[in-house]
Fucosyltransferase (Nematostella vectensis), 257 residues
Amino acid sequence: MNNPNAECPYQCRTTNDKTLFAKSSAVIFHARDMPSVTTLNDLMRKKPVTQVWVYCSMENPIYTPPTSPLNNMFNWTMTYSSKSDVFFPYGQYIASPSPSIADDFTKGKDKLIVWGVSHCKLLRDQVAQKLSEYLPVNIYGGCASMFPKRHRDGTTCPRSSQQCDELLRRFKFALSFENEECPDYVTEKYWLPIIRGNLPIVLGEGINDDVAIPGSYINIKDFPNIKALSEYIKYLDKNHTAYNEYFQWKRKYKINS
């Protein structure tokens, strides 16, 4: 169930039709839309003996409603964690040998670092603030005004617009900071830059080569301080060969969409 290359032996049909509850082999409950305990208890009385209840959440535990009231109600878990019964990551990669790839991934990239952020006042803010003391960091989103040292070049990035997408593709690096450091918690903050062609700069212990593409990112934790990180970014900015090494994964893998 956790192997993206495996073929499912079952012919499954999904539905949002709650009138089919009693006929369903499995029912998925999303943590953010969880019915009340009273409603769940009522449903349990109607639950077929063989029916599986699946608890689904894509958020980390810090931002997930308490689960203690739900003890013993669910059979399986379905989350971003590789330890879940059903591994449901934000993105996956699979083996796909492709010896022929682009020669230079710096082409079309005339800007350095970008960060889109709308959830403020977290530890990651301090990291971005410090990095912007050494390098130009373009910051977009609801929190941009909190960073007086951000790079300002007159560009705007309206969310989900083609204009924004085209602008973001011009950056060599993207800050891909999660709101919390949790094991296996790798969200669209990593996957979207990968898809756009940016080199993600990640923060924390949560990301590893089991859930992210090996050799595709820079982890701040690998540097003694932000100044050392900034020097490495400057090196990659000037050394196209070294920068392109972070895209060699395309010879072995592809994103499983």
